[in-house]
Amino acid sequence: MYALLFRHVLSRLDPEFAHHAAMLVIRILGVPPFSWVARALTRSPEGDRVTALGLTFPTPFGVAAGFDKNAVGVRGLDALGFGHVEVGTITALAQPGNPKPRLFRLVPDRAVINRMGFNNAGAEAVEPRLRRLRRRHPRAVVGVNIGKSRVVAVEDAIADYVSSATRLAPLADYLAINVSSPNTPGLRGLQAVETLAPLLREVKTAAGAAPLLVKIAPDLPDDEVEAIARLAVAEGLDGIIATNTTIGREGLRTAASVVEAAGAGGLSGAPLRARSLEVLRIVRSAVPEDFCVISVGGVETGADVRERLDAGATLVQGYTAFLYRGPLWARQISRGLPR
């Protein structure tokens, strides 16, 4: 049913408009009695529970950052069967993001190119939303992904991240530092070990008791991935999220003219699967067994989730396949997860 709806209706809509329409439906699904029905349809088996970061996740599969940028759809996403929701990326200062159009489907590849640019309401606006969520819906596991405000110079990035962490960490089940989006100028330069170390140190102090993770790019050379993994352990972080979107365009089925017309931005979806899995294995080989590794990139089926778990992932996240699989995607993952 959803495949027909996507092919004949949703695929004809502007991708960003379609996303906002879907988010409206998701928000409705988070309110009783709709949430009761959704939860009854998507409940995961008890055996799927995962203990990590001092938390209990009802299922190892969650929603990656980028889908719910402003923490408005958590209740609905939870009702749809996702084991956790990582909101954001949230910046200290509110910002509109890059000019539109900035989101493009590559349907033959089941992929998306985005150059959203951290469009979000800012930490000050998101803080009371998270506070209400924690009070009214404490069962949801919520990660908060923070990034650098665009107007802040790279040399002032630490103070900017610390500002967001100070506000949001007390309300987060875990905090994720995003230094790997390709859509904010200069951001990926913060992944260099010499610049990343002081950033991790200061944000960890600001985060207090909240578990802290860092999200890395798939485009890093293998030795740099390993170096960041070892740095994260040395600085006392609780985990790594691997990976963000890629700037690569190799091996796509979509016509080259369509890809070129979409322009710059991060590619996500099925084409990222192989590299994301490679990075997962590199990270896992460089960190202790109890160190949390969240794998994201190219995940679409229960078998994909099982492959990541078998390769050493503690938890798994997805986003892009949600656009192609529809609202029962988390249920499909749960039912199709080999046990």
From TrEMBL:
Keyword ATP-binding: no
CC cofactor note: Binds 1 FMN per subunit.
Reaction catalysis annotation: (S)-dihydroorotate + a quinone = orotate + a quinol
Top-tier EC class: oxidoreductase
Catalytic residues in the record: S181 (nucleophile)
Alphabetical list of InterPro entries matching this protein: Aldolase_TIM, DHO_dehydrogenase, Dihydroorotate_DH_1_2, Dihydroorotate_DH_2, Dihydroorotate_DH_cat, Dihydroorotate_DH_CS
Membrane-traversing stretches: none
Binding sites annotated in the UniProt record for FMN: A65, G66, F67, D68, K69, T89, N145, N178, K215, T243, G269, G298, Y319, T320
Pathway(s) where this gene product acts: Pyrimidine metabolism; UMP biosynthesis via de novo pathway; orotate from (S)-dihydroorotate (quinone route): step 1/1
UniProt membrane topology term: Peripheral membrane protein
A GO MF label: dihydroorotate dehydrogenase (quinone) activity
Cofactor: FMN
Domain Dihydroorotate dehydrogenase catalytic: 50-338
Record Pfam families: DHO_dh
Function: Catalyzes the conversion of dihydroorotate to orotate with quinone as electron acceptor.
Protein family (similarity comment): Belongs to the dihydroorotate dehydrogenase family. Type 2 subfamily.
Matching HAMAP family: DHO_dh_type2
Name of this chain's protein: Dihydroorotate dehydrogenase (quinone)
Species per Swiss-Prot/TrEMBL record: Microbacterium resistens
Gene this chain is encoded by: pyrD
